[in-house]
TrEMBL record, chains A, B:
<dbReference type="InterPro" id="IPR015424">
    <property type="entry name" value="PyrdxlP-dep_Trfase"/>
</dbReference>
<feature type="modified residue" description="N6-(pyridoxal phosphate)lysine">
    <location>
        <position position="322"/>
    </location>
</feature>
<keyword id="KW-0456">Lyase</keyword>
<keyword id="KW-0210">Decarboxylase</keyword>
<dbReference type="Pfam" id="PF00282">
    <property type="entry name" value="Pyridoxal_deC"/>
</dbReference>
<dbReference type="InterPro" id="IPR021115">
    <property type="entry name" value="Pyridoxal-P_BS"/>
</dbReference>
<dbReference type="GO" id="GO:0030170">
    <property type="term" value="F:pyridoxal phosphate binding"/>
</dbReference>
<dbReference type="GO" id="GO:0005737">
    <property type="term" value="C:cytoplasm"/>
</dbReference>
<comment type="subunit">
    <text>Homodimer.</text>
</comment>
<dbReference type="InterPro" id="IPR002129">
    <property type="entry name" value="PyrdxlP-dep_de-COase"/>
</dbReference>
<dbReference type="GO" id="GO:0019752">
    <property type="term" value="P:carboxylic acid metabolic process"/>
</dbReference>
<keyword id="KW-0663">Pyridoxal phosphate</keyword>
<dbReference type="GO" id="GO:0016831">
    <property type="term" value="F:carboxy-lyase activity"/>
</dbReference>
<dbReference type="InterPro" id="IPR015421">
    <property type="entry name" value="PyrdxlP-dep_Trfase_major"/>
</dbReference>
<protein>
    <recommendedName>
        <fullName>Glutamate decarboxylase like 1</fullName>
    </recommendedName>
</protein>
<comment type="similarity">
    <text>Belongs to the group II decarboxylase family.</text>
</comment>
Length: 510, 510
């Protein structure tokens, strides 16, 4: 091979000058910088991977914005910098970044680090492919298809289904809204919404905020998202859904879609899919299930009942970058339809990219299903992870995370000064910390006003110490409470105990 | 630090059993797999970086889909696989992937590999941040701001401007459409499009297909995208734009936006921005400039005249992952407005994420400007690259690419059997190859039908040989022609000669 590609014209010739540029040599040869890349990667593995996941190291090294600006020297200048200085910058960047793979990062739904998906990510970054055509991304087109088929099998679709990975659950939910309305009225694609009746979609008050963003972005309007009440556990109340559908019909609007959530962001609640599917069937509504967070439970024989009925959905969003630690982003959007609805809804048939006279089967050029042009092969890192640990390995991680969440809930109930919002069904554990000074106080308005200030103060202290990160929020009428997210496969029960001990230590003087 | 975080409760205790799971140890400790990560990274650097950019290695190792499926063994199974097998899979994946960083990959607008942005990408993947809040992404929030400010300076906005990075130029163009209509009629966000008159936007027939996709996705409708004719070089004709605007007004529709393109996808054409801006001013239309591909010319004192007038745009899309080799994706969307339009247009004010009682300046929580929730810090890799080579280094790369494109054009005109479509202004070189058998033929319909088949056949041969990759397409009434994209900083004039020699070698028997 080396010889056949080594043509005589690669031999250096006399210099050619065009526009004042000498064109003979390269401006940069990656090989001459190979040593720099090796040094940087070695530093990254040590600082961000090894130390970044070490329980004895800090989760974050807090600096306020103005101070951090000075440290980082953000200004971009005319001249470049030597390798030694760039390496120092890499070190600083890692140092002052939050270690989201650290076992004690409980702040978000993408906590934890997996070595296999990490390696998959390095492969993606070094091969730098775009997923639109088989021609430029042969391996990644095929792995996306394999991952989607397997995920759809767990959704419960056997011979059915189509899908695509998107850059975020929010965008997956947008896909759902667009496919649902196109399915109802294909003319919308060409004619737009100004030519059709007012469309209305339904979702619970506990749903992710991206449903509202989708309605705004897609021209439906946020007021045409009808919020359905949830019960005290955060699950959509089917009777309330039916009421809202009837209300929309009475108004002369056109109800077209229900968004059900499997694993809400704050409480980790699962909407009752079977009952919602019945209502959708009666009223001919598209059922989309936002299982971005809760979809992982499908892999667990013990917990998949949480999504009972999901196979009746018309579309499903499921993010393996959350509970399954595939790394940001890794977001599947899947439709039950297998007649090419996804492609018809989004295609633009660009002739410069999707040429119809290629020498291979052009059904493998899947890019026209997408609203993107260039698209990263996010599914690949999940494919490699799945290959490495198998379905059973993924199942074990899900079971372990939920078991740890339950252990934490029991500990919260057992300990003085902690109060659980509700028994967790999934991996969100919501609770208040009550400092000693408030433990004897009656539960008045004043009590809850004081409690409301506790979580922000403890959060500030834990970040400045760097010992852990855990989220808090108000919710409905409730005062600020902690929301612990349990994901990382590095966690054991001692880490759950640590969280409670640490909160008590940080907040007992409040 | 190590001591202060090393609490006694991390000491192993008796096993706890919950839901049939023992909770004491971790399921997986990344440290125990550290050796695997090191081995994999070493393999990736060698195979994908060192060999992947070696001019003496193949650009691609072609396999047809069915064959590649067998080789890769795509099926995901219940059991996992040992490290040795996963390493072998990594090797296969790299082997059969297209080397888009190879100097002889001329197929797409993101060719080439830069060592500094590559290192930035490794840092992003190992720290795995999401950009919505300062709390979880302090460094990356600040570097995004620094990069946007610098890019806006090159657009020509001094004290003005706001922006965000998005996962793709297509999505940036969608942002533009949404902000433009919101600016025209803020009620749309809440009320939706069914309550407003028919909106119409204008773009040249040469624009990227994402403008049409945006109109469909955002509920405007593809028929409300009025195509404006271009001249023979692919530039929008201002008089034709004005005609279309008057047509829409005469129809009683509501014209709201013009999309101008700086660097069209196929021909690399630049629309005349100043003349278009005049028309927008007259008719009160939002001017968006899709400079995803051509924006890089702003960094070149020699070539920035191509975008003369861009500072008059209301919004600009510019992808540093194209000409500036920042790696997929790296896409800035910028608006000239500095009154918070971007935020008002997209915000949903999720209280669990954008809490208003945080202990730092919450203006640094920029996530509510976005249509995404989780968002990768794509700007960071470009920041690191810019730090390493400086503005002058970036400028040199742009100048060199354009100079090489011109050299190639001269060679095409000099050589028998090659015909240039037009003199390049930028880094797209479009040309036909005419095999010896057709060189004497009169330029009849039959001649062009035969020419139409030449590029696909040569493309097939070059891919099966693996010697290079270069795109082709039909365009308007023109028969299939090659489109060579010149980006990689590894290129010299010998590589340009190589392309022509190789095409001749592959096609001379046709």
């Amino acid at each position: 091979m080396r010889e056949s590609l080594c043509h005589s014209n690669l031999v250096k010739r006399d210099a050619v000058l065009v526009n004042g540029m000498y064109l003979n040599g390269p401006t940069l040869d990656i090989k001459t910088t190979y040593k720099f890349v090796e040094d940087a990667v070695s530093l990254i593995l040590d600082e961000a991977v090894r130390k970044g996941t070490d329980i004895l190291e800090k989760v974050c090294e807090w600096q306020p914005p103005e101070k951090l600006k000075e440290i980082l020297d953000l200004e971009l200048r005319e001249g470049g910098e030597p390798h030694s200085k760039i390496l120092k910058r890499c070190q600083d960047v890692i140092r002052y970044s939050v270690k989201t793979g650290h076992p004690h990062f409980f702040n978000q739904l993408y906590a934890g680090m997996d070595p296999y998906s990490l390696v998959g990510r390095f492969i993606i970054e070094t091969t730098n492919p775009s997923l639109y055509t088989y021609e430029v991304a042969p391996v990644f087109v095929l792995t996306e298809d394999a991952v989607l088929r397997k995920m759809m099998e767990f959704v419960g679709w056997q011979e059915e289904g189509d899908g695509i990975f998107s850059p975020g659950g929010s965008i997956s939910n947008m896909y759902a809204v667009n496919v649902a309305r196109y399915h109802r009225c294909p003319d919308i694609k060409e004619q737009g919404l100004s030519a059709v009746p007012r469309l209305v979609l339904f979702t619970s008050q506990e749903c992710h905020y991206s449903v509202t963003k989708a309605a705004a972005f897609l021209g439906i309007g946020t007021k045409n998202v009808y919020a359905v009440s949830s019960d005290e556990r955060g699950k959509m109340i089917p009777a309330e859904l039916e009421k809202q559908v009837l209300r929309a019909k009475a108004e002369g609007a056109c109800p077209f879609m229900v968004n059900a959530t499997s694993g809400t962001t704050v409480l980790g609640a699962f909407d009752p899919l079977d009952e919602i599917a019945n209502i959708c069937q009666t009223h001919n509504l598209w059922l989309h299930v936002d299982a971005c967070w809760g979809g992982a439970a499908l892999l667990s024989r013990r917990h998949r009942h949480l999504l009972k009925g999901i196979q009746r959905a018309n579309s499903v969003a499921w993010n393996p970058h959350k509970m399954l630690t595939a790394g940001l982003q890794c977001c599947a959007f899947m439709v039950r339809d297998k007649t090419g609805l996804l492609q018809r809804c989004h295609s633009a048939r660009a002739s410069y990219l999707f040429q119809q006279d290629k020498f291979y089967d052009m059904n493998y050029d899947t890019g026209d299903k997408s609203i993107q042009c260039s698209r990263k092969p996010d599914s690949f890192k999940f494919w490699l992870l799945w290959k490495a640990v198998g379905t059973y390995g993924l199942e074990e991680r899900v079971n372990k995370a939920i078991a740890l969440a339950r252990y934490l809930a029991v500990e919260i109930q057992r300990r003085e000064g902690f109060r659980l919002l509700m028994e967790p069904e999934y991996a969100n554990v919501c609770f208040w910390y009550i400092p000693p000074s408030l433990r004897k106080m009656p539960e008045s308005k004043e009590f809850w006003e004081k409690i409301h200030n506790v979580a922000p103060l403890i959060k500030e202290r834990m970040m400045k110490k760097g010992s852990m990160m855990i989220g808090y929020q108000p919710h409905g009428g409730r005062a600020n409470f902690f929301r612990q997210i349990v994901i990382s496969p590095q966690l054991g029960r001692a880490d759950m105990d640590f969280v409670l001990d640490e909160i008590d230590k940080l907040g007992k003087d409040l």
